[in-house]
Each structure stands twice: as structure tokens, then as C-alpha cells.
Design a protein that fits this description.
This protein has 2 domains: 73 residues, Orthogonal Bundle (Arc Repressor Mutant, subunit A), CATH 1.10.10; 33 residues. It is 52% helix and 6% strand. The chain has 6 helices and 2 strands. The chain has a two-stranded antiparallel sheet with strand order 1-2. Helix 1 packs across helix 3, helix 2 packs across helix 3 and helix 5 runs antiparallel to helix 6.
Length: 136
């Protein structure tokens, strides 16, 4: 008896791939912008997925990563539920020392292949924070 070979699902791009990371970062930044625009009002995950043009599972993974990064995301199930950014905690000032700023700039340089314009601008703002921008 002949067995038909199983079709393998294509493997997702390796997470260390700079282009994949750049797309993920850009999408996560877009998630944050959408949630900030909601001003603390819940937004259903399916509505967020539709707005971003991705699956609900992709949005859920992005939200997991943002929570792991300690962003003040909140969620509630059921009718009228969804996810929101706790804006009362979201506007606390970010304090970074020069080493942390430099690490962020270097990470963005590493991902430079396909950085969206918003991240390119962020990188330039970070560079301007350093005392010696000539290092770059």
C-alpha cells in the first residue's frame, strides 16, 4: 500500500530574521497607536485585527508581547469587552540612561533592512538624546 506523503505546513520566518522583527515591531507600534486613539475605551480583538489586516491570533500574539514588555494593557471578555491601554498609567515618563539609549539605537540599526519611517524617526530622536551622536 502506498502512502501519500503528508504536506508540511510552511514554517514561519525565523523570529531572528531582521525583516520579520521589523514588521512585528511596526505592527506592535500600530497596535499601540490604535489603542491610544481609543483613549481607554475597549476595542474588540477582531476589530483590531480587521483594522490591521491580520488574524486575531496575530493580534493576540502582539498583545502578549506588549504585555511582556510591561505595557499597561487591560482586557475584558464578553459583550462590550475588548482590550485597551490603561492611559492613566501609559503616560509615565520613560527614563533611560545613555547605555540603554545606545542599545536601542544599535538594535534599530540591526533591523535597518525594512524599518518603517516611524521607527527611523524614533531612532533619530534617540540618537539626538546621546551626548556624542558622532559615535554613530
Amino acid at each position: 500500500m502506498t502512502r501519500t506523503p503528508r504536506r508540511r505546513k510552511p514554517r514561519p520566518a525565523h523570529p531572528a530574521d531582521p525583516r520579520t522583527l521589523a514588521r512585528q515591531l511596526a505592527r506592535q507600534q500600530e497596535v499601540l497607536h490604535v489603542l491610544l486613539a481609543q483613549r481607554g475605551e475597549p476595542l474588540a480583538v477582531d476589530a483590531l485585527a480587521e483594522r490591521l489586516g491580520v488574524s486575531e491570533r496575530t493580534v493576540e500574539r502582539d498583545l502578549e508581547r506588549l504585555r511582556a514588555a510591561r505595557l499597561p494593557l487591560r482586557g475584558r471578555g464578553g459583550t462590550g469587552g475588548g482590550v485597551w491601554l490603561d492611559v492613566s498609567r501609559a503616560r509615565q515618563p520613560l527614563r533611560l540612561d545613555d547605555d540603554q539609549v545606545m542599545a536601542l539605537v544599535l538594535a534599530l540599526d540591526f533591523l535597518d533592512a525594512d524599518l518603517p519611517e516611524r521607527l527611523v524617526q524614533t531612532r533619530e530622536q534617540l540618537r539626538n538624546l546621546l551626548d556624542e551622536p558622532s559615535l554613530f
